[in-house]
Design goal:
This protein is an alpha/beta fold and about 270 residues long. The protein is built from 9 helices and 12 strands.
Length: about 270
Amino acid sequence: MYCILNERIGLRSWWRTPYAYYIREMRDAKRLTREEFELLSRCDGETELEESSLLRSLLRRGLVSPCAKGEKQLTAWQKMDCDNRYFPAMNWMITGKCNYNCLHCFNAADNAPLMSEFSLEEAERLLDEAYACGINAFTITGGEPMCHKNFFEILEGIYRRGMYVEELNTNGYYIDQTALDRMKALGCDPLIKISFDGIGHHDWLRNRRGAEADALRAIRLCADNGFRVKVQTNVHRRNLEAMLPTAELLDSLGIEIDASIRTSRLDLQL
């Protein structure tokens, strides 16, 4: 009989982790026995296989499916040997530039001339290297990552190579329906982590009038479009009393809040 890997399965072999596989858009690889890996490696739609209890087990687990000879072919993503140790994910600051002047952050708009960022050519080279290393998931951050003029081209490069964006860190300013539609068209469905520092306090810390309205607009728009959203809040003495009403507002929108970021340098200045 002939079998082929499920299209969502990608075999990987790294130093010290020679027998493993990814499920597409799941961050961590899963281990295999040597026997499982070797049999899965032969499930290419071209190699005739003998029936066995192990093959029946792989079929039951949904790792492979039967096919006619030559009916389907494996993609390059589905079988890779990586000349490095296993690490599945990458936190990538694509730019240090930002459109805000947040009081607690050096990646500010007035420092923009000093902040470097990846050119599209450099980003493509890094993505080739990440792919060859077996990277699976990315957290995209900055600066404000959506400031990058090639933001969507970088996302496209990730998905074109079979990798995916697990998280996107943003201040929300550039999020609109067009941006969300472009992400959906790519199959890009990350956890969107938006900064929001409490009702009545966000503009002050972000040093930009209207930042609070923009953040809440982005949070609501992401939620309305079915994206998972997590709000990251800097906690300091000025906004402590706003934490409960802020949490109640976000809870009413179905949004998770992470209020564990302590702005200790600001505490010294208040």
